[in-house]
Amino acid sequence: MAKKIRIGIDVDGTLTEYYQFFMRLTNSFPDGKFYIITGRGEEFKRDTENELKLHHIKYDGIYYVDPTDWKAKGELCKKLKLNIFFEDQNEHIENIPDDVLVFRVRNDANFKNGKWLDQ
Ligand SMILES: [Mg+2]
User: Fold this and answer.
1) CA spacing 20 to 30 A to 10: which of 1, 41, 45, 110?
2) What does DSSP say about strands 6-9 and 84-87: parallel, antiparallel, or unpaired?
3) DSSP characters for the chain?
4) Residues within 5 A (CB) of ion ligand 1
5) Residue 23 CB burial class (10 angstroms; 0-12, 13-18, ≥19)
6) Half-sphere exposure (CA, 13 Å, Cβ side) for 99?
7) How many angstroms does the Cα of residue 110 sit away from the middle of ligand 1?
8) Each residue of 57-110: pLDDT tens digit?
9) Which long-range CB contacts under 8 A does 46-49 form with residues at least 24 apart?
10) pLDDT one-digit tens code per residue, 24-55
11) What does the alpha-carbon distance between residue 68 and residue 76 come to, in Å, rounded to a whole number?
12) What are phi and psi of 55, to 5 degrees?
């Protein structure tokens, strides 16, 4: 039996780069589970939830992590048994478990001057 799809989505620099894509994605898998995982502080909870509603993003949970804790998102991937994770920052991606398929999103903030090609 196929694994049920469980997808995590970062907000800033990822979901905010292409709302229409994520709206379509999150509404395309009726059996899928979608988790928003953001480094935004809980003080932005209301704004974040309003933003998701405005853009018709379907989700099953939102997690607010410390943006300087590079391991937090990887730990949530494990805890939530995610298959797929969308993220824009290398520091988070480095700590995502190997069995999670990562889609890295390019945005203006962290891909300037070919910096993303380094390493
Ligand atoms: Mg981000």
Assistant:
1) 1
2) parallel
3) -PPPPEEEE-TTTTGGG-HHHHHHHHTS-TT-EEEEEE-S-GGGHHHHHHHHHHTT---SEEEE--TT-TTHHHHHHHHTT-SEEEE--HHHHTTS-TTSEEEEPP-TTTSGGGGGG--
4) 10, 12-13, 88
5) middle
6) 9
7) 9
8) 999 999 999 988 999 999 999 999 999 999 999 899 999 999 999 999 987 655
9) 48/11
10) 999 999 999 999 999 998 899 999 999 999 99
11) 15
12) -95, 10
Q: In angstroms, what is the span from residue 65 Cα to ligand 1's centroid?
A: 12
Domain ranges of the chain: 6-27+43-107
Q: Please state whether 13 falls in left (phi above 0), alpha (psi between -120 and 50) or beta.
A: left
105 CA → ligand 1 middle, Å: 9
Q: Which residue has the tokens 């990822």?
A: 14
Q: Which two tokens stand for residue 43?
A: 């003080």
